Amino acid sequence: EPSTIVWGLLFPVVSVLLFAYVFGSGIIVPGGGNYREFLMPGIFAQTMAFGIGETLASVHADASKGVTDRFRSMPMAPSAVVVGRCVANMTYSAVSLALMVACGLAVGWRWHGSPAETAAAIGLLLLLRLAFLWVGIVLGLKARSPEMANSIFGLLYPVTMLSNAFVASELMPDWLGTVVDWNPLSSTITATRSLFGNPGVEPSGWLADHAILLAVLWPAAITALTLPLAVRTYRRLSR
After folding, report:
1. Cβ atoms of 218 and 188 closer than 8 Å
2. CA distances (Å), 97 to each of 47, 123, 204, in order?
3. Cα(125)–Cα(46) distance, rounded to whole angstroms?
4. Residue 139 and residue 52 in contact, taking contact as beta carbons nearer than 8 Å
């Protein structure tokens, strides 16, 4: 679906330009620092999260057009289709993340950590994408109509906004900051900011101090729940 690919690649670029040049001048980074360097790890994580919608739309399109039924009639393992979708989407996500890194470099973002720390940050982002990919597969298999798929996609906006991607949780009301801190997306964002050496990582409690650990545990837990569910849902399509 060329239109889906183009939209998926252009939307994060537009977000970078919007927040970096329109809102960035009015947002404070706790502890000081360049807002664009604060912003980019959040945009990276948001791009990975929006992969839920892209996967959901693709899986639902395959199911509604009979492609999934054609695969199911063939002598292959039930997990083969969903694993194939996983491999394809992870390849696309890696390309999308590379584009976002180039976009970040163009607006002034830089990483300041070691090569190993930078590679670890990229790995955490792709791990988050892998976890959300299985969520997208499950929702795509369960969606009954394009309208339902689109409505689920719309829920990604508040989920990604209720994170520390664009504004530090310390600047929010206490109750909202607590919600933001417990968002799995926030753990990955804090961890990647720390590994990239970008501003905005201030000691603020157990969650921030263990962000790297949580950036591994949250995706692992999500994958452990949704991967078997995806295979089970695929097996039950004809029931």
Report:
1. yes
2. 8, 11, 28
3. 10
4. yes
3-state secondary structure string, the chain? CHHHHHHHHHHHHHHHHHHHHHHHHHCCCCCCCCHHHHHHHHHHHHHHHCHHHHHHHHHHHHHHCCHHHHHHCCCCCHHHHHHHHHHHHHHHHHHHHHHHHHHHHHHCCCCCCCHHHHHHHHHHHHHHHHHHHHHHHHHHHHCCCHHHHHHHHHCHHHHHHCCCCCCCHHHCCHHHHHHHHCCHHHHHHHHHHHHHCCCCCCCCCHHHHCHHHHHHHHHHHHHHHHHHHHHHHHHCCCC
CA angle 159, 165, 168 (to 5 degrees): 110
Instruction: Write the pLDDT tens digit of every residue in 72-111.
Output: 778 877 667 777 888 888 998 898 899 899 999 998 899 9
Contact present, 133 and 86 (Cβ < 8 Å): yes
Residue for token pair 């804090």: 190
Using an 8 Å Cβ cutoff, are 44 and 184 in contact?
no
- Residue 147, token pair as written in the block: 């309208």
User: Is the pLDDT confidence value at 201 over 70?
Assistant: yes
> Does pTM top 0.85 for this prediction?
yes
CA-nearest of 229, 231, 225, 194 to 209 is 194
83 within 8 A of 164, measured Cβ to Cβ: no
- In the prediction, which pLDDT does 149 show? 66
